[in-house]
Amino acid sequence: MRRYRITIDGLTYEVEIDDPHARPVTARVSGETFVVDVDSAVDSHQSTAGSRPSPVDSTTGNRRSALSPPGGQQALTAPIPGTIVSVIATVGQIVKRGDELLTIEAMKMFNVIRSPWAGTIAAVHVAEGRRVLHGDPLITFVIM
């Protein structure tokens, strides 16, 4: 786990990233967990207005965010192109972070795909023998 202190528009946030190389990234911002899809590096001079989490309102405790909070649906996408060789996950299954979901074969190597979140599987979008491209949806979760 890596820890960061970031300042956006004068507001400081404590950010913990479980695995900065995982896609999507699981991050905790000021104690709240978010699932973040990272597409590519952004030039540090580009504006990202509107894409930051809002600070917690101290009177209501509410927070608005463009990030995916727990309790919402989130799709797990293929991290690499390849062929699905096994699917263990089933719709309605409750999984913990790290549970094995499926295996993708790419370049004669078998890559076990594990759950990045705790939650319930809402949909399985692939079957054994199907080819997938990088970014294709594999499984949709309802995140706990």
Terminal-residue CA separation: 20 Å
How many separate helices? 0
Range of strand content: over 45%
CATH topology of the largest domain: OB fold (Dihydrolipoamide Acetyltransferase, E2P)
Which sequence of SSEs, written as H and E, runs from N to C? EEEEEEEEEEEE
**CATH C-level of the largest domain:** Mainly Beta
The CATH superfamily of the largest domain bears the name RNA polymerase II/Efflux pump adaptor protein, barrel-sandwich hybrid domain
Shape: elongated
Stretches with pLDDT under 50, minimum 5 residues:
41-69
Provide the CATH architecture of the largest domain.
Beta Barrel
Q: Can you give the helix content as a percent range? A: under 10%
**What's the arrangement of strands in the largest beta sheet?**
1-2-3-4
How many domains would you count in the coordinates? 2
Helix/strand/pairing category: mainly beta
Mean pLDDT over the residues: 76
What integer value in Å does the Rg equal?
A: 17 Å
Task: Find the count of extended strands (DSSP E, 2+ residues).
Answer: 12
Question: The biggest beta sheet, please?
Answer: 4 strands, antiparallel
Written account of the structure:
This protein has 144 residues and is mainly beta. It folds into two domains: 1-69, no CATH class; 73-143, RNA polymerase II/Efflux pump adaptor protein, barrel-sandwich hybrid domain (OB fold (Dihydrolipoamide Acetyltransferase, E2P)), CATH 2.40.50. The protein is built from no helices and twelve strands. The chain has strands spanning 2-8, 11-17, 25-29, 32-36, 73-77, 82-87, 94-95, 100-106, 109-114, 119-124, 131-132, 137-143. It has a four-stranded antiparallel sheet, with no helix packed on it. It has a four-stranded antiparallel sheet with strand order 5-12-10-7, with no helix packed on it. Strand 3 (25-29) and strand 4 (32-36) form a beta hairpin.
